Amino acid sequence: MTTAFTIREAVMADAEAISRLCISGFSYIHESGFLPEDLTAICEELFSTEPVNADMLQGDRFYLVLDTPDGVKGCLRMAPPSLHDAKFDRGGFELSRFYIDEEIRGGGWGTKMLSIAHKRTRSMGFERSWLHVFIPNARAQQFYLRHGYQMMGQETLHFRNSEPTGYVMMKDLRQEVCIAAPSSVSSPMDY
After folding, report:
1. Rounded mean pLDDT of 26-43?
2. What's the rounded mean pLDDT across residues 78-86?
3. Is the pLDDT of residue 182 over 80?
4. Residue in 120, 141, 125 with CA at minimum distance from that of residue 92
5. CA distance readout (Å), 96 to 152, 161, 184
6. Is 125's pLDDT higher than 80?
7. Are the beta carbons of 63 and 56 closer than 8 angstroms?
8. Of 45, 37, 57, 58, nearest to 19 (Cα)?
9. Which of 41, 49, 67, 158 is deepest in the core (most CB within 10 A)?
């Protein structure tokens, strides 16, 4: 028997689950790039439930979640670019806060979420997707390269006494290629 997962737009009731995923994922990935007290502070400032709620209320962005019978196990955010290289790209949108629970990683859910995010972004009139991936996160870099992203340079994030560096990547969404999704995915969205 196959478990059905649903990828859908997040609602305010998802903020706590998104917060949990973001804090857990960001902390794990950036542990070597931040001083411990800075990592705690940035997670509190950006990813606790209250800031996630406020971010979700902004009309110029969207979150997707991967809903499972055990609750929300994945999230991603698309918003106006904040990266230095992308800030002035009027045709660009930025992918961030993309986390999948470790227990279901590798099952194709990230690919499907990314595909839906790209389609939604294109339907909003944007032509490029930008992102920042921490340099030690080779698995994510390979994932994005397989999905058509290109390395555009590096950018250092400055937060208190920490300065982790990551790659800036970009994908031209006008050349989106369809990738087969897991057969047990259900998505109510039609972009």
Report:
1. 94
2. 90
3. no
4. 125
5. 16, 22, 25
6. yes
7. yes
8. 45
9. 67
Report the mean per-residue pLDDT for the chain: 90
Q: Which two tokens stand for residue 149?
A: 């992203």
169 class by beta-carbon count within 10 Å (0-12 exposed, 13-18 middle, 19+ buried): buried
Reading the block at residue 106, the tokens are 């590798």
Q: CA angle 169-172-174, nearest 5°? A: 160
Contact 76, 116 (CB under 8 A): no
CATH among 3.40.50.2300, 3.90.650.10, 3.40.1190.10, 3.40.630.30 for 5-183: 3.40.630.30
Residue 21 has φ and ψ, to the nearest 5°, of -65, -45
Helix H or strand E encompassing 117: helix 109-123
List CB contacts of 167: < 8 A, sequence separation 6 or more. 132, 133, 135, 141, 151, 152, 153, 154
Using 50, 70 and 90 to split pLDDT, how confident is the model at 107? confident
